[in-house]
TrEMBL record:
Pfam families per record: DAO
Source organism of this protein record: Halopelagius fulvigenes
InterPro entries in the record: FAD-dep_OxRdtase, FAD/NAD-bd_sf
EC number: 1.-.-.-
Keyword annotations from UniProtKB, A to Z: Flavoprotein, Oxidoreductase
Gene3D superfamilies associated with the record: D-Amino Acid Oxidase, subunit A, domain 2 (3.30.9.10), FAD/NAD(P)-binding domain (3.50.50.60)
The protein's name in its UniProt record: NAD(P)/FAD-dependent oxidoreductase
Length: 378
C-alpha cells in the first residue's frame, strides 16, 4: 500500500525541520525525509542572531533578517510549551571589538549603520548599545586582546543549530509529524502537478505538495522541477574549544570580520568560520582553513592560547547566486516549493523562512511577502 501525505519535506536541517513543524502544528499531514548528509550547515553553524549589528549593507536582506530574528521571541516560548527538551537558544549579547587600526576605522561606520537601523526598524532599542573601554571589554570576555574600540549590544542571541532542530522535530512529532531517514530519488510531476516522491529505497509516497529544503544539495532536483536552482556549497570550518574558566554569560565576540567567537555555558567557545566559495561538496577540514581560524582566535583573544580543541566541524552552506534565500512555489509546477539558499545565515533566517513557506503550502498568504525571494528571479 502506498503511503500518502498532504506534504513531503525533503531535507531536515533547520529550514526543513521548521517547514515540517509549522505544517504539522497547523494540522497538515506531513512527512519529513532526511538523509542527514555529512557537512550539513545546521550541524556546524554558530547561530549568531544579531542582524542590527551586521556590516552587511543589503537592506532587503537586513529587513528580512530583523523580522526573522524577531520571530524567535514567539517561536521559543511555543517550543518550550510543546516539547520537553532543550532548544539551545539564549540571549547573550554581542561584543563588537576593534583590535587593530583597520578595524577601528570600520568601527564608526558600523555604529552609524546601527543607528540608521534603529531609525528604520526600531532595533536595536535605545540603551541596548554601550561603548566600552578596553578594560570593560575584557571584563566581559576575559581572553580578549587589548581593544582600540568596543561596544556591547544587549539584545543579540545565539542558538545551537543541532539542538534547535531537534526541538522543532520533537514539537512536530507532538503535532503528528512523521519522519523517515533516507533520501528522495525523484520528485514525481505529472501534467504540471506534483504527485509525490520516490524514495531512495524505491518506495513511492503520494503527496500534493513537496518542499525541497535540501540545503547545499537542493539543486539536485533542478531537472525534475524544470527550473534552475542556483545554489552552491560554501564551506565553513569552525572549531570548538574547551576553556578552563566559567564561560556562563560570556557574550558573542565579533571583530568586524566574518569571524566570531560564541561561548556556551559548558566551558566551550566556538570560533570560526571560513567562507570558502568554490570548495565544492568537500565536507572536511583543511590545514589552511584551520590555520585561518586559529590565527584569528589568537589575534582577537590571545587568552585562549591554552584552550584545548574539543572538536572541529564543517558546514556546507547553501549559498545562492545573489546571497538571498530561495523561497516559495516553483513556477509551472503546482505543489512544488523551495526553501533553501540561506548561505551562512541559515540559523538566523531558517525558522522564520520555514514558517512562511509552510503558510504558502497551506494556501495562506505568508505574513511576509516571499515573492522577492522566488526562484523565478534568476
Amino acid at each position: 500500500m502506498t503511503d500518502r501525505y498532504d506534504a513531503v519535506v525533503v531535507g531536515g536541517g533547520i529550514v526543513g525541520s521548521s517547514v515540517a513543524y509549522h505544517l504539522a502544528r497547523e494540522g497538515t499531514d506531513a512527512l519529513l525525509v532526511d538523509r542527514r548528509d555529512e557537512g550539513r550547515a545546521t550541524d556546524a553553524g554558530a547561530g549568531i542572531l544579531s542582524p542590527a549589528t551586521t556590516s552587511r549593507d543589503d537592506e532587503t536582506w537586513v529587513r528580512f533578517a530583523v523580522e526573522a530574528v524577531a520571530y524567535y521571541d514567539e517561536l521559543v516560548p511555543a517550543l518550550e510549551a510543546e516539547q520537553d527538551g532543550p532548544h539551545g537558544y539564549a540571549e547573550r549579547g554581542l561584543l563588537a571589538v576593534a583590535v587593530n587600526g583597520a578595524e577601528a576605522d570600520a568601527y564608526d561606520e558600523t555604529l552609524e549603520l546601527v543607528r540608521e537601523r534603529r531609525a528604520e526598524y526600531g532595533t536595536p532599542a535605545p540603551g541596548t548599545i554601550r561603548e566600552l573601554d578596553s578594560e570593560e571589554a575584557k571584563a566581559r570576555f576575559p581572553p580578549l586582546a587589548e581593544t582600540k574600540r568596543a561596544f556591547h549590544y544587549d539584545d543579540a542571541a545565539r542558538v545551537d543549530g543541532r539542538t534547535f532542530e531537534a526541538a522543532l522535530r520533537r514539537a512536530g512529532r507532538a503535532h503528528g509529524l512523521t519522519e523517515r531517514e533516507g533520501g528522495v530519488a525523484e520528485i514525481l510531476v505529472e501534467g504540471g502537478d506534483v504527485r509525490g516522491v520516490t524514495l531512495a529505497d524505491g518506495e513511492t509516497v503520494e503527496a500534493e505538495n513537496v518542499i525541497v529544503a535540501g540545503g547545499a544539495w537542493s539543486a539536485a532536483f533542478e531537472s525534475q522541477l524544470g527550473v534552475e536552482v542556483p545554489v552552491e556549497p560554501q564551506r565553513g570550518q569552525i572549531v570548538h574549544l574547551d576553556v578552563d574558566e566559567d564561560t556562563e554569560g560570556w557574550p558573542i565576540v565579533s571583530p568586524f570580520r566574518s569571524h566570531y567567537m560564541v561561548s556556551w555555558d559548558d566551558g566551550r567557545v566556538a570560533a570560526g568560520a571560513t567562507r570558502e566559495t568554490g570548495a565544492g561538496f568537500a565536507p572536511h577540514t583543511t590545514v589552511a582553513g584551520l590555520r585561518e581560524v586559529f590565527d584569528e582566535v589568537l589575534r582577537v583573544a590571545p587568552g585562549l592560547s591554552d584552550a584545548s580543541l574539543r572538536t572541529s566541524r564543517v558546514g556546507l552552506r547553501p549559498l545562492s547566486e545573489d546571497g538571498h534565500p530561495v523561497l516559495g512555489e516553483v513556477p509551472g509546477v503546482a505543489g512544488a516549493y523551495l526553501a533553501t539558499g540561506h548561505g551562512p545565515t541559515g540559523l538566523q533566517l531558517g525558522p522564520y523562512s520555514g514558517k512562511l513557506v509552510a503558510q504558502a503550502v497551506r494556501g495562506e498568504t505568508p505574513e511576509t511577502d516571499v515573492s522577492q525571494f522566488g526562484v523565478g528571479r534568476f
